[in-house]
Amino acid sequence: MDTAYLKEKRLLLVDDEQELLDMLLSILKAEGFRHIATARSVQEALPLADTFRPELAILDVMLPDGDGFSLMERLRQKGEYPILFLTARGEEEDKFQGFGLGADDYMVKPFLPRELTFRILAILRRCYKGESPLVKLAHCELDFHRAEVLRDGEQIPLTAKEHAILSALYRNAGRIVTMDSLCEAAWGENPFGYENSLMAHIRRIREKIEQNPSRPVSLLTVKGLGYKLVVSQE
Between the chain's N and C termini, which has fewer beta carbons within 10 Å? Predict the structure, then answer.
């Protein structure tokens, strides 16, 4: 199975050691994960659960203002998504407690970066296996696994930036996505100054997905706010 679509999932990392967070960010970004938020405490993590809306959380057990087990229970009240514990506490009782609360996996530090990546992908594959990468629009289909537009029997490739923009729009299908959010999805943490580039990419995307790019029906401009992707309900 192609893992590109799984690597578009939003990951939340919670650990009180900034050095470890930096290392995890480096490992995961090198493996192709693009949407990652970090927190160093329970109080930092909880607001992110509302704003960032993670699709997988990686938690330390020992945190300065609480513990990962209680944090997991509070996160699960906000949304059902998989949780992996990554902690120095390797006692059997801790593992039993984590799995007993419904954790999807439990890894003990130190760890092998490759093993961590494999375990994350295994969890995502298992939890999101029902998702289809094929998205129907008015005049075409988007294949996120292959980064292609399927239209009139033709396979039209998407560039990495086009794929990132469309992925961000699809995650919020039917809702307005601001230009800043789309710039961040395509160009990373410092997206300022890319508005003109974004508009150029939007034009090229419309040429690939719309029957008439001048009168779009799938990728709409919401004046003064941003853009919206309209997905077929059929």
Answer: C
